[in-house]
Specification:
single chain; alpha/beta; Rossmann fold; 4-stranded parallel beta sheet; 6 strands; binds zinc ion
């Protein structure tokens, strides 16, 4: 077919039956072995490209029970506090009982340590964009089953314009796009925007982070009446996610949840 002869290589690869494409990837791996961006080992069995099997398996995943409000893992159910005595009510950690975050719920897939931390660093600071795929999959596989049924859309936490320009991408957008696709939800990248520049949160003490991002976001009226989930790569104090949630609520969002690949514990 003449059109195929001139197609770009990836188009031709995509057009191959999956068995043949798999064989081609295997053959390419023999000539140019794919190396894991975290440990530099060749990708072997159990690989979650571009992560090798052992790195994928070593991620410190967060398992329930977790605080419904902030995603903090709470250990064995017997030690978890109930917000009320009624069975079936969400479990909330002592911090959130005293002062709940501005978002309605939060889930994180892994502890921000070890492999998850190294993979997120390679993704953001070494430009290893292919890591968006396993990191988004991690989020969906750990948190997807427990998500509310009335979610209307997934939104990325917007990155400061200068930082996105310098990095070439917004990590929350790359992860959020895949999360939304896997959840079968619309991805609305324009419903929340930065309206002013802020200093990087990572350079500030926890106590200064809320003030740094106050009033930094604006939301579209399109969010009115919807329950939406924000996606970010790392959740530290939750100050940025809280400020995003305030902006979305001010624009009429009925509920706002937060999803992070990793959480500082
Ligand atoms: Zn590895
Ligand atoms: Zn909490």
């Amino acid at each position: 077919m003449p059109a195929l002869e001139h197609a770009a290589p990836h188009t031709r690869l995509a057009a191959l039956p999956s068995l043949a494409a798999g064989a081609l990837v295997a053959a390419l791996d023999l000539v140019f072995p794919a190396l894991c961006p975290v440990c530099t080992a060749p990708l072997g069995s159990g690989r979650r490209d571009p992560l090798c099997g052992p790195c994928w398996a070593s991620i410190a995943r967060i398992a329930p029970p977790c605080c419904h409000a902030c995603g903090l893992p709470l250990g064995p159910p017997a030690t978890a506090l109930q917000a009320s005595g009624r069975p079936g009510t969400p479990i909330v950690c002592p911090v959130c009982v005293v002062r709940a975050p501005a978002y309605d719920w939060a889930r994180a897939a892994a502890r921000y340590e070890g492999t998850a931390r190294e993979a997120l660093h390679a993704f953001k600071f070494e430009g290893r964009r292919a890591l968006a795929r396993p990191l988004a999959d991690l989020l969906v596989e750990q948190c997807g089953a427990a998500l509310p049924a009335d979610l209307a859309a997934v939104l990325p936490v917007p990155l400061a314009r200068e930082r996105e320009r310098a990095r070439g991408f917004n990590q929350a957008t790359l992860i959020g796009e895949r999360v939304a696709r896997r959840l079968g939800l619309p991805f609305e990248r324009r419903w929340l925007v930065r309206v002013r520049a802020t200093a990087p949160q990572s350079e500030l003490a926890a106590a200064d982070r809320s003030a740094n991002v106050r009033g930094a976001f604006g939301a579209s009226p399109e969010v009115r009446g919807h329950h939406v989930a924000l996606v970010d790569d790392v959740m530290t104090t939750g100050a940025t996610l809280s400020e995003c949630a305030r902006a979305l609520r001010a624009a009429g969002a009925v509920r706002v949840g937060a999803l992070a690949v990793a959480r500082v514990i």
